[in-house]
Amino acid sequence: MRIEFYVLSSATPADRQRAACQLALKAWRAGMPVFLRGADQAQCEELDELLWRFKADSFVPHDLHQHNPQAPVVLGLDEQPATSQGLLINLNPGLSPHLEQFSRVIEIVNQEPQLLALCRENFRLYRQKGYDPQRVEL
């Protein structure tokens, strides 16, 4: 499994959500199923709205897990993904309980101090589980 921490230079939550949408679009276009994991239901609903409007010239087929777990881009929390071997974009502060279902994981880090601390802990936990997470500067 490939695990990457994409590091943003800003501390703005909106930039982090926008990056998640861009990554979901890119993965979907490459034919990969995407599970976009939010921190809570409110964030999932914000991402649902953002995926409709973040890029005027493209459409990302998506839905909330409870409405359509088979959508190409699924927004959810701790639900088991309907499709395995896809991409997990994790905006949740903790690790997914379904890590083994994914072939790739992306954690999006910004410069907000509390989030940085949580992401450092996740990096450590991935290593503890035997993975080799990589850092990618954006």
From TrEMBL:
It holds the Pfam family DNA_pol3_chi. GO terms for molecular function: DNA binding; DNA-directed DNA polymerase activity. Gene3D superfamilies: DNA polymerase III subunit chi. InterPro entries: DNA_pol3_chi, PolIII_chi_sf. GO terms for biological process: DNA replication; positive regulation of DNA-templated DNA replication initiation. This is DNA polymerase III subunit chi. SUPFAM superfamilies: DNA polymerase III chi subunit (SSF102400). It comes from the Bacteria.
